[in-house]
Design brief:
Chain lengths: 322, 322, 322, 322, 322, 322
């Protein structure tokens, strides 16, 4: 297989064993945003979990996902192509964070993502908790609201926690819709499940035109039909993809803060993600990987795998539009 | 969502984070049996594993299930109702036990469950090993034998172990049928699988009219058909539900004493349990969670989730019959 | 052994096995602060880690410490007395917290501790990260600054992090001294070790008269001499005791956010704490237990043991002054 | 159930608890190859992982698989027969190995398997990494090439690693085909998935007539159709079965060196293996169980279960041909 | 180094790697008691924990201790001799047990130990919980009471639990003294520590002349002086050695049922055990290793090491008296 | 504290949290050997464990040590200086390895270390198993044999394994002495302990003048006297320091291949290492960290800490000789 001569290429496990050499997303070179030239897609860590209302640890997510992403090789076995031949991809390092101040942390992350977008780079981020999606959406949806395909056990459309606090990992998409960076009418949530406090989030979603699909409905429809609906919801316009690792069953993703029994299998998630083919993905994230709750690294391996599936689609999209 | 003013309500994770505050089943108040008034359904721990023939630890089950049950919120996302609006539910604490004497332990547990039943409370217990079902059945089936829907990898219909010992976690339902507290003809066992010593349990089941369904048959039929059969087996009469966590595949429930490869997923188990709708569940248990074999707590999370599914049905049943 | 008839007594493991029954500190009754009458010493959980700059999880500390404290029985094997015969002790539950807002969380915790102190109760808290000591000190040192015996690998006297943020678990005692609730001249820090960013904290300590003792010095002196110095530093005036679990070597306390190689053994820590005999301990805490980093529970067992050592001294102190 | 009087029988868990007594495959007697008389099927450990290019530890596989195989009883619940009534089965111990020299290790293992085959014993081995299949194939395919049904995430048909090294766990079947001990045209690989370095292995397989079936194809066809194809590929001639535990999803088999997200469930694997009924299995292995990456033992339990499924078929095959 | 030609010898890790080959204590041959000829010292597993009042799992101890004992080689680095040149040592397998009946289990174990003693073999057992020492003492002290050197955090001299139950792992030595198989006046307990229910055990010990030494006293005296006292307590008469792994600090032995903070280090334990030189050890055990609470195997490694220290002394004693 | 303007400086945890940003030894810049200019001390990973005769996994050591070294800050709390002000230090990445061929791997590693030494850089390596010391010694002792201070439970002076194989992690120093790159007469081994196969290694050491000090002797002498002896053995000539993590007790370093009960504490190891002050350390390594056996990372934290202690001495040595 011919490798593209100008684009960044990952280190091969046939040259340097996968437990050796530098640690980065997909074993790609790490490039500082200041030095980023002609990058199409930027892999970014967001090591922050200040919005977490229950079990913390997602701040450690990017490091473990990078480590487990060494398991991913360069060619997709179904597409039979390599994203590194289609687009120039790099690891842009971690967004700056502040574990001791929520507002400052969000501001730092937002500035970083805005610099990425300003550079013409499409961000594919690894969280971090789900509140990290908010500054990312502010960047990619800054000019006009984006649509979103959202895989999650939870809607994250709640209003506030603990007596009025509006910024937690349970509220990012309520905020994003209110701020006008996310278009509720072009948003679909897939795989909702688990007990809920009440039905307030459903009401919010209904008011803003969000298509909320329970896992029961998704399983009845099957992945092909689900994604047909998803594609019709987001259309051809710029779209964000947000993948909360807790959409997987806890057996596959124990390392997360809010596990819910009865989730998707990774195989189903792969099928669903492959159904995004053709969607104009302008930004994406995989969030809520909390390594302290999974020393095995399996959760992070699944997260890296989902990033890989998204990356292949983003690269193909970039190549198509070039 | 309007909360019932007289019934006990769980603490909300939007007020007190789920890792804080007292530990009880579903974050409900803990009420001593002596002080129990107008309780419809009692959640009970049975911290005892004296009937275990292989890997122990189920005595630690109730504590870890209580802890993980803090993940469960008040409204069922499919039913769109809360059991706490339909029935008065409380945590009745742990049944008294004795880890150093099998007979005394069974006697203590039986007395406790008889007091619960005498109070007009329907017990929903968390084991403990499967021998804990015997004293519970003696209480709920004391006046006349109950039917049973039994989810398990094993039939637990064996005669004896180690040269004639008749009380182990492999024998409770043989005893219960012999004692006349369980009606074999109104009993169905779902999900049997794994290698066996011989076919003696099958013969016992056949003699007593037990419907024994292997997991292969259950998967071929699908959950809807399986539960149609189950409902026809137990009919409208009082029925016990016993859920051995090892009916799940060990990936979902590693924390158990006798894991068998190739089990149900939690999603399938949820589907099966929802098929109990309308059955007159007069008592239930979820057993064989052994925390030392699963520090992650996932097994206990699944157990708490299955208790939640059963609780919602019991509450609806209580409300319907009120 | 005669048990005091009026004071709260723990459940005995000879009556109810230690894995059964309700979970509380030392198996004592849990009493709401509003209902607290004639309590001398209150055991309090502070499930909050919002000041953590590195590995989180101390928010889960109180729950696991309570669970492991079931291992502690009622009589101290060296003192040959029971604190429950000398003072009325209760578990006051968890202080209210807010994981999504640092300032609000500190305010809630402070209000709770002020109510405790206002009730004439001496608090013995289980953290939470070390920033939790600040609201506690504001309560016990509110009228006049207290002295402190502080066991820790770190001085926690830093000025700020991440470009000027003044409230983290590395800064509480700088704040407490600046606010005048802690008397630097009556403060001793025992067991400092590990690499440091620079020597700024040493300078701060020197300016405020803090006696800073490295672990090397402590080991050379031996526990008796160390505590002779400690007692002379704090004198007879009201004194706070703060025990950061990371003063122990990580082999004994892996479940903590900032482990440093080469720490005290639990045996040495017990010797040191017993040297506090006679000191007027008006408040205390054991902090920085992060259960996600120690599924074994050993860290929490050591924390519970250190609480037990402090409790016995506090009870004796209460009895002496009664 | 009548037990065969001449064949070896496993210890029953109803006589000696499964955590007690000697440790061997399936609790069968351990017989030295020198003393083996009238053995039909030999269970063999190959504690060697010298061909591993990434995470090691498969050398510990045989010991943990033996331990977890104590969970397997004597009668298959679907077949309703016991392999120990159909064939004489024994644990032949571990093949001799050398962790410090690859060539010497392969030579030792090959000699051992040749002695097994020379004794008229069909080997069923537990690895070890996948390179262990090569000396086994050299033994069973020594006279003429065997066919193979191969369950794996990876084709293991690569040419070389690290600049020309031809013997790794990624190359055994390329070598076996080149050496003429494996018949590519009678070989099927089931469940291939995961990213790849390039498409070289596909080309090699195509050149040698190997039927390579991705997991996507296998899932679309369903197990019955897949195994119909498999049986038609291998026909009635002598066939080897190689089961790499990483064909299972990492949630079920975390203890392996090269996990790939999105694999088979154990239930699916059981269905596939049962489809081998009638195939003339002359040798088999279950490989790549790496216990250090799965302290729970679940991976080894699944490996023991797959050995059990294969053993039952081999025994039936032996009985049929006797 | 010359190996004795008639005595059993362990497999060498220089011939067969330590993770390969059969699993037995110290890699010695396993000999059935019926076939035991000219064995001086028998290593015995007692896989039973029916006397456990708190965390179970010691039934799994013998298997994991055997596995970790593969780490022990044939020559003691301080004595510079091998026990296998001084005495004939074998693994006698596991005593028969019954997890479902306490009385039957004790009877089976006692019969086994009586057969061992009747064969002229000195037993060195691996538990199992501490109640396993009772049937062993009944065997070795059957003709006349033995003395005992007992290393433990707990005295195990309690009268009864749970309202009068006399046989638990907290009561064996009270029973043994009452039955006249253990001579209280020739018994010393070393390393007592941790909170206690009351002082009843101290009173019992005092009445029967038991020398009870707290860890504080032992540390003040130092190992040489402690063992001088121990040797003077037991004198030259037959003596039993019982080593409860919980005498070690939980950092070294997390895998135990009743951990107490502040215990001995393995190094101190080795020093203490070496001080038994010259004592006529007629039987010994190492108990309370509970593998489910220590997947690392370190607890079992320490247990195997303590067995090794005792074995070397027993062998020297046998050789001296031959 | 003034930072040196020309030397590389680590990222501060007060700017970028320690779980964020790139992963390297001590958070220093990673510099390719080809680009290394004016580096005094090079931190190097050797991810290879091909010489391991028992439990593998040390190949994963460098990655986990790098990760845990983020815990180390820039100033030594006892020396009150920073090595980064005294010498120019960088992470040189990993030596190239080959997990599939022992001879090729050793050749690659040797070439890398020779390039380092040729650049005037003093290597401080993180293994890898202990055979990795051989190519390093070939580089630093290439011109004339170096002395060595060696901390280990094992002498690693054996001749061969498995019937004549001369290159394993138990033989490196026998080879190094035979090859003339290590001077036996200027070598001291500190902390030897644990059972041995025979006394052959002692004889080899004696023949070559190696000072072999058992841990019992080291503890009797105390660290000051031990290191006085060590300094007199190695004198002022170039000396290598090799620290096998298994010299620590397994409670502190469970993540290693050949644990031996009864080792040093990290505190003792720190004292011993500080006694190397003034020794001309021309190369050093910390080896045998096997992460799969310690998911907690404590072993790696201790390894990073020992590297830190050695680094501070090397830097001071460099500054002194500049």
């Amino acid at each position: 297989m011919n490798q593209n001569k100008t684009f960044h290429q990952p280190i091969s496990g046939m040259d340097v064993p996968r437990y050796a050499g530098p640690v980065s997303f997909m074993r790609l070179p790490q490039v500082a945003i200041e030095a980023a030239r002609d990058i199409d897609i930027g892999l970014i860590g967001v090591p922050w979990d200040g919005g977490t209302t229950n079990r913390p640890g997602a701040r450690h997510g990017p490091r473990q996902i990078r480590e487990m992403s060494a398991m991913i090789r360069r060619v997709h076995h179904v597409h039979r192509t390599s994203p590194y031949d289609l687009a120039n991809v790099a690891d842009l390092g971690d967004a700056p964070v502040n574990p001791a101040d929520l507002d400052d942390a969000l501001a730092r992350i937002e500035r970083f993502f805005k610099a990425v977008v300003a550079n013409g780079i499409r961000p594919l981020a690894a969280g971090g908790d789900h509140l990290c999606s908010l500054p990312s959406l502010r960047a990619v949806g800054g000019l006009r609201p984006v649509g979103m395909v959202h895989f999650d056990a939870h809607s994250d459309l709640w209003d506030s926690y603990f007596g009025g606090f509006k910024l937690t990992h349970g509220t990012p998409f309520a905020r994003a819709i209110e701020e006008g960076v996310l278009d509720g009418g072009r948003t679909i949530q897939i795989g909702l499940r688990g007990s809920v406090y009440d039905l307030e989030d459903r009401a919010f979603g209904a008011r803003h035109g969000v298509r909320m699909m329970d896992i029961e409905e998704a399983l009845t429809l099957g992945p092909d039909k689900v994604m047909e609906i998803a594609r019709s919801v987001v259309g051809d316009e710029p779209t964000y993809v947000s993948f909360d690792i807790d959409c997987l069953d806890p057996a596959f993703a124990p390392g997360t803060g809010t596990p819910e029994a009865g989730g998707f299998t990774p195989r189903e998630a792969q099928s669903l993600l492959r159904g995004l083919k053709g969607v104009d993905i302008v930004g994406a994230d995989v969030v809520e990987v909390s390594p302290p709750f999974d020393p095995s690294g399996n959760t992070a391996l699944n997260a890296a795998t989902m990033m890989w599936e998204i990356l292949c689609l983003m690269a193909e999209n970039v190549a198509r539009r070039r």
